[in-house]
Design brief:
By secondary structure, this protein is α/β, with parallel strands linked by helices. Helix content is 45%, strand content 15%. The protein has helices spanning 15-21, 40-45, 51-63, 69-79, 112-129, 143-152, 171-178, 194-206, 208-214, 224-240, 258-268, 285-292, 316-323, 328-341, 348-357, 365-379, 385-397, 417-424, 451-465, and strands spanning 3-5, 30-32, 91-95, 98-102, 134-139, 158-165, 185-191, 216-217, 248-253, 273-280, 295-296, 343-344, 358-362, 404-409, 445-448. It has a domain at 91-109 and 224-424: Rossmann fold. The chain is globular and about 60 Å long. It has 19 helices and 15 strands. The strands form four sheets. Strands 3-4-14-9-10-13 form a six-stranded mixed sheet, with helices on both faces. The site of pyridoxal-5'-phosphate (PLP) has 17 residues, from α11.
Length: 467
């Protein structure tokens, strides 16, 4: 399978190529040249498989001959081995026709592990096969950094440097990053904001000699392999609930649009998905777009569901490309206009087509707290603030549950103890494998918001490990 850029000006690549490249050179995002489509018989043949084997079978359609199937199966088996639930992605029923799919049983207790655990192993395999090495750099305000560190720690041929804003992340989030102890890992606390961290990462990528010298790479949510690795759990849920003979709807707590885009991809592959409900918190740019064809950026406001505190959803470009009938010229023009003016609307027919699949839903902090309390009172289930947005979205947009709806459970409630305690009076415990999080030794370096200092730290890590 080949991949093309949404902006049409970058070379087509195979799966291994897009894995290592991340963003395309023309600023676009890689998408499959054509979508694999499965027949009802193909879907039926996947019923009842253990999750890692199902994941390998779905991923195989996108990896094609970049990686042998037995290697891919080994990667998926290994990636999900240490998850805290034997089903990996269990479904929990909350009501007639209403389920939560828990995607948070991985090492960092958030759904980012679902893709990242596979991605780290894919990187290691491809780098070995091509005799290369990379330095992954990233900025994080929370979940992505720790998931990337857990996925890459101790892997040959990879060094990983994660920047976080000093004293501006939650204690659980910081400790999940700074207690990952491996010789190829560096945590840097920047004396600045999350935006400063992101600017430093961008500046490192923009410094071409440095980029080449350090062979910089990224594992952020625009990497196609992350989307691909998120498709299988939609398949698992739909098959368990009767696909291909019955339709399912999904409600997805959304930030960068990566998770819901994976659901769209599953639908494009022929999985019978009735609708996709895009849940947002008070940062509701996507809901405003779906309600009124107005995608206009405003300032990011902090909320109880911080992993959705995003105004520009980078993966939306992939959906836009499809909605515009895969026209790279129109996609480039829209994205350029959006960057220049901070707003975008699409032709009316295109917007209407988007609304046949995607429905918007918004919940402010008060609503999130009320929903956590309501779900707990009604069922005893503890939904974290992100998952609560998903559940509320599923109830609001599928009131009669005519179609079985699955809310995606994207984080473990123990990651957000204060919000849970305020809503329910309960303090959810960390799972046993993380129980010692607060006594583990932390390792991080505090640096000023200064490019030269950060580049020095990246070089020092590489110097220690490259020989
Ligand atoms: C990243 C994240 C999201 C948002 O997912 P996107 O793919 O960026 O839309 C939602 N919930 C949690 C807990 C997350 O970590």
């Amino acid at each position: 399978m080949r991949y093309i850029s949404t902006r049409g000006q970058a070379p087509a690549r195979d799966f291994a190529g897009v894995l290592l490249a991340g963003l395309a050179e023309d600023g676009g995002l890689y998408v499959p040249e054509s979508w694999p489509v499965l027949s009802p018989a193909d879907w039926r043949a996947l019923r009842g498989l253990p999750y890692p084997r199902l994941a390998a079978r779905i991923l195989q359609r996108f990896v094609s001959d970049s990686i042998p199937f037995d290697v891919l199966t080994g990667i998926c088996t290994d990636a999900y081995r240490d998850f805290g639930h034997p089903a990996v992605v269990p479904l929990v029923q909350l009501d007639t026709g209403l389920f939560v799919q828990e995607l948070f049983h991985g090492p960092t207790l958030a759904f980012k592990d679902m893709a990242m655990q596979v991605l780290g192993r894919l990187f290691a395999h491809v780098l070995q096969a091509e005799d290369k090495r990379v330095t992954i750099v990233g900025a994080t305000s929370g979940d992505t950094g720790s998931a990337a560190l857990e996925a890459c720690a101790g892997r040959d041929r990879i060094d990983i440097v994660i920047l976080h804003p000093h004293e501006r992340t939650s204690l659980v989030q910081r400790r999940q990053m700074t207690t990952v102890n491996a010789p190829n890992v560096a945590n840097i606390a920047i004396q600045g904001t999350f935006d400063d961290c992101q600017d430093l990462v961008k500046a490192m990528f923009a410094d071409a000699p440095f980029r080449q010298e350090m062979r910089l790479s990224a594992v952020n949510s625009i990497n196609w392999a992350r989307i691909a690795a998120q498709i299988p759990y939609y398949v698992a849920a739909a098959l368990a609930l009767g696909a291909p003979d019955r339709e399912t709807a999904f409600a997805v707590p959304t930030g960068n649009f990566g998770n819901v885009l994976a659901a769209w991809a599953a639908r494009r592959m022929g999985l019978p998905i009735a609708r996709l409900i895009v849940g947002s918190n008070r940062n509701d740019i996507l809901t405003r777009f779906l309600d009124s064809n107005d995608m206009s950026v405003s300032t990011v406001l902090p909320s109880l569901a911080p992993s959705m505190d995003i105004q520009v959803s980078s993966n939306f470009e992939r959906a836009l490309f499809e909605l515009l009938d895969r026209d790279p010229v129109a996609t480039s023009a829209s994205m350029r206009g959006f960057r220049e003016t901070g707003r975008m609307s699409v032709p009316d027919a295109v917007w209407r087509r988007a609304r046949t699949v995607f429905h918007g839903f918004r919940l402010d902090d008060e609503g999130i707290e009320a929903e956590i309390r309501r779900v707990h009172a009604a069922t005893g289930y503890l939904a974290d603030p992100h998952t609560a947005v998903g559940i509320a979205a599923a109830r609001a947009r599928a009131p009669q549950q005519a179609v079985t709806t699955v809310a995606m459970g994207t984080a473990h409630p123990a990651k957000f103890p204060e919000a849970m305690e305020r809503a329910t009076g309960l303090h959810p415990a960390l799972p046993p494998r993380l129980a010692d999080l607060f006594t583990r030794e932390e390792r991080f370096t505090v640096l000023p918001n200064d490019l030269t200092a950060v580049q020095g730290a990246v070089r020092a890590l590489a110097a220690r490990n490259w020989h």
